[in-house]
Amino acid sequence: MSRENLSRWLELESHERDQEAEVALFELFGSLPTPVPSTDFSQRVLQRAGVIRPEDLRGWSRYVTMAALLFTAATAAWMTPLMLGVLTAVDLSAAIRVAAEAIAGTAHFLVELWTLGSAFGSFGRALWVAAASPQALTALALTTTFVLIVSRCLIALISSQRNQTHVSI
Amino acid sequence: MTVLKAPAPTDDQLVQAALQGSADAYRFLVERYQRPVLSVVARMVRDPGLAEDLTQEAFARAFQSLRSFDPDRSFSSWLFKIAHNRAIDHLRRKRRPMVPLEASDASGQDSWEVIEAPEHQSPLRQAESAELSEVIDRALTELRPNYRQVLILRFQAGLSYQEIADTMEISMASVKVLLHRARKQLATVLTAEGLAPNSDSMP
Questions:
Q1: In chain B, which residue's Cα lies nearest the Cα of A52?
Q2: Which domain holds residue A154?
Q3: Which residue in chain B has the smallest CA separation from A37?
């Protein structure tokens, strides 16, 4: 059908039969295949427009919540005596002592970390004073400029190589 | 027993419902125009994935601008104008459309998910139609941009002369002149490729 439409249109154009040629061109375009929108096209449009939230996220959270509730309900019946047994078997005073030791250990660790941080801070301050000298700043500026130039050249080189695989139409 | 079907809501009714907050009303509008708008954009940018992205963006922008829509105008022509402008903006930003070498082989296969023509087509006919579509796409790219636009808006989107004039922001007289010249040039290009009337060969 498409080829016949094309031939018919070309023939009508060559004979200057404008009105019939226009109808034939409509038929030609109408006979050509057209792309099919994806199945979730309208959904994506509404998400992009901010009308609805992403459907999959909302769906997932709903299913996870339902699954969690079902699991809790299913396990509540036999978990309760089990938990009671565990709790009565545990020595409460020992548990409190372990917890206190854990907190103390954590606090000690934080103090050590703070001391280490202070040492790094002192080192950093000394480094900053040294780097504030004109010679150090000049060296830093020159190094930064050199790195930027080299990076741009590399990016341009990579881009030009990639563009050689494309043709313009 | 006769079953009466409720008439489909008009564009104006759906627009009003969407303005009052009905997401389903706008979804209905999207589903009504997604295929014709996508076909126009796809014909302009020649990239299926990009066409779908631009079309979705056009619909999203149309929704966000719905309050500024003039109800005296046709919703479809307003929508086509937004989509057309999005495609033009994209082509201008890219300056020249680029096609990877590996896509410009002799078979010209795109990653289109094609539909059949209105009548049922055999696989051979489908392949011929796809090939012819590729030929016409290539011929369209050889035309001036305004010739290409006016042909796509008229014969792909089915817009009237006035709607094309509104979309391209030119006079109706200019539309008629452009269409006449564009048709002639397209015919010249296709004839030069060996597709003379009643030709059995395809390039």
A1: B23
A2: 133-169
A3: B35
